[in-house]
Amino acid sequence: MKVYNFNAGPAMLPAAVMERAQKEFCNYADSGCGIMEHSHRHKIFEAVLNRANENIREIMNVPENYDIVYIQGGASMQFAMVPMNLALPGKPMEFADTGTWSSKAIKEAKLFGEVKVIASSKEDKYTYIPDPASMHPSDDASFFHITSNNTIFGTQYQSFPECKCPMVADMSSDIMSRPVDVSKFGLIYAGAQKNLGPAGLAVVIIRKDLAERNPANVPTILRYSTYTQNNSLYNTPPTFGIYMVSLVTDWVKDQGGLTVIEANNSKKAEMLYAAIDASEGFYRNPVKADSRSKMNVIWRLPTEELEAEFVKESVAAGMLGLKGHRSVGGIRASIYNAVTLEGVEKLVDFMEKFRKNH
Amino acid sequence: MKVYNFNAGPAMLPAAVMERAQKEFCNYADSGCGIMEHSHRHKIFEAVLNRANENIREIMNVPENYDIVYIQGGASMQFAMVPMNLALPGKPMEFADTGTWSSKAIKEAKLFGEVKVIASSKEDKYTYIPDPASMHPSDDASFFHITSNNTIFGTQYQSFPECKCPMVADMSSDIMSRPVDVSKFGLIYAGAQKNLGPAGLAVVIIRKDLAERNPANVPTILRYSTYTQNNSLYNTPPTFGIYMVSLVTDWVKDQGGLTVIEANNSKKAEMLYAAIDASEGFYRNPVKADSRSKMNVIWRLPTEELEAEFVKESVAAGMLGLKGHRSVGGIRASIYNAVTLEGVEKLVDFMEKFRKNH
After folding, report:
1. Active site includes A194?
2. Which residues in chain B have Cβ-Cβ distances shorter than 8 Å to A226?
3. CA A244 to chain centre
4. What value, to the nearest 5°, has the Cα angle with vertex A220 and ends A219 and A224?
5. Which one, A306, A326, B127, B297, has least CB within 10 Å?
């Protein structure tokens, strides 16, 4: 049975990417061994790394005054590295709190200085993104941190705040899902395991001046400058993960880049929200209309028993990963770049049948 | 042409492991997708993680009062995490300095408290391991840190010091190459990319009481307790890397465990050292006889020009990775567990022919 994968992350990767990686797994570029068996200092891997860099720079139109680096530890490591590297003495770190991942980033920053939460939807159970135009980070803040898409609560920024201090964005769950003006940000980070590749690394896009803030007491491996000054090769990088990022970004380019990707993502999300909205209240999406995520669509059913039954029957029908996050329950379909329109059609069909049967 | 891989890390993996991973790359356990596309919280991945844990515990005979965890960032991250987590106020951190990696660990520890180097072979260009019986770490030190094998200088501990404070060992380059009494150590860490799997994670074996030292100011992701309390699942772990560790450790068990592995490694190393020693000074290994590594065999040729020629001709003959570390030059053959006797025979043949021709 063909399986449709709606995992929230680690998530489905494009079928063409998986097939190519499988094909050359034991013999990369006719070198006689797999890319994961090559030295990170060999020209064969260097070409892979440079390809990933060039692809990301081209696809996201990353300006020349930004570096692109790969850091192990995913977004959770960035929750620590951002304040360790960017906190300036006497200048607050400011945050918008739009869910679990924002809250975790806030918690870690408190170890390194004063934190101000200047916008939050916590009191409304994170059911929306506060109006970005109403967010006013201080001009002299160390930085202002947002979470561009919230996997657990199914919300996503549709526009970004104006910000004179460096704006830092956790884009783990929607990077490369739509065009973004990188020059508005000081630092963008994203755990790879949704839209970029396998778990085990974060892609970090950092304005060069910010990489130089390094307080003296930060260990070498936790300094951004260690990565920017060594093209991510100070220590052994996660070579296979970077290779997969190079393949996924090749695929994004093959698709036609972010304008095409965004159009596909919009189409998938619209189909799914339309199915929810047309269900006469059987399926309920709790998110404010202007904050709905195109990456993670969440919904509730009339009872938790029906939700459990929905998950059970969906698995039997060949659909993976539809159970909502364990902290909130309900149903969640993660429809990242690699999820096909066919997969969403299959899900919508299943939803309609399930509703008629229950 | 068949290629023989002597890379220092990332290194060759067992052929059987690579073939199995390739076969099930896109469809793991008939689940319809690859293991890297599965959620880290799904029972399919949980079984992989538990399998890796159980294999390591069995192979290394890890006592019950130790936890086994997987942490991103390789050994370089451990250089920071060890002192961040284990430094006790007023108690020095003690080190034996046996090479580049020891020195890097020492440098990072200095950020977190008083460091004492109680044994060193630095003045003799790291050509030997100081007699472990002569190392006397303080009973009340925060910890005593050694590097069990030194990839760059080709040295390896043949026995371990007695130590009443927790002994911490960087075993990145010789873990699972021979039986070791884990109970003599407080913490063992190893970047995976030599004997355990691909780059992108370290395996950490930690005595339970040490995981609880956590100073209050250490970020969540950098605390050992975060990993031990959550079976390495606090955040998304490097799932594919852990899967590869599970396959490699399956393979170690299939070989007959560490006694057999050690015998094979000894045989390979003896062949190579014998070829060097029988070369009438053409090949010179600078390491003191009692400190020679069975994992990384280094040697010099009469001139740097001949060394360059040796590397060039070896590549043409299908042998990868024989160039010495860029910091020291010369030749290095890394003969980790996965390197076959056939590969070493091929190399020894090549060395003899090269000597006759030059």
Report:
1. yes
2. none
3. 16
4. 105
5. A326
Q: What is the dihedral of CA A331, B27, B242, A191, to 10 degrees?
A: -50
Selected residues 6-25 of chain B with any CB under 8 Å from a CB in chain A: 7-13, 15, 18-19, 21-22, 25
What is the torsional sign of CA B289, B290, B294, B300?
negative
Tell me the β-bridge partners of A191. A202
pTM of the full predicted structure? Answer: 0.98
Contact B219 A108 (CB under 8 A): yes
Q: Per residue in B88-99, pLDDT tens?
A: 999 999 999 999
What DSSP designation does A284 have? Answer: B
- The tally of CA atoms less than 13 A away on the side-chain side of residue B271 is 22
Helices marked H in chain A = 15-23, 43-60, 74-86, 100-109, 208-211, 224-228, 239-255, 258-277, 304-316, 341-357
Residue of A317, A342, A310, A331 lying closest to A3 (CA atoms): A317
Instruction: Report pLDDT digits (tens) over A190-232.
Output: 999 999 999 999 999 999 999 999 888 999 999 999 999 999 9
What SS3 class is residue B156? strand
C-alpha to C-alpha distance for A269 and B36, rounded to whole angstroms: 24
Q: What is the DSSP code (8-state) at residue A192? A: T
Contacts of A132 by beta carbon, 8 Å cutoff, 6+ apart = A157, A159, A160, A161
Quote the minimal CA–CA distance from B150 to chain A in Å: 16
Averaged pLDDT score across all residues of chain B: 97
Q: Which residues contact A44 (CB under 8 A, 6 or more apart)?
A: A28, A29, A31, A35, A38
- Give A133→chain B minimum CA distance, Å: 32
Question: Residue A352 carries which side chain, given as an amino acid letter?
Answer: E
Nearest by CB to residue A10, choosing from B13, B40, B219, is: B40
Residue B309, classified by CB atoms within 10 Å of its CB into exposed (0-12), middle (13-18) or buried (19+), is: middle
ipTM of this predicted structure? 0.98
pLDDT level of residue B1 (50, 70, 90 thresholds)? confident
B284: three-class secondary structure by DSSP:
strand
Q: Which residues contact B23 (CB under 8 A, 6 or more apart)?
A: none
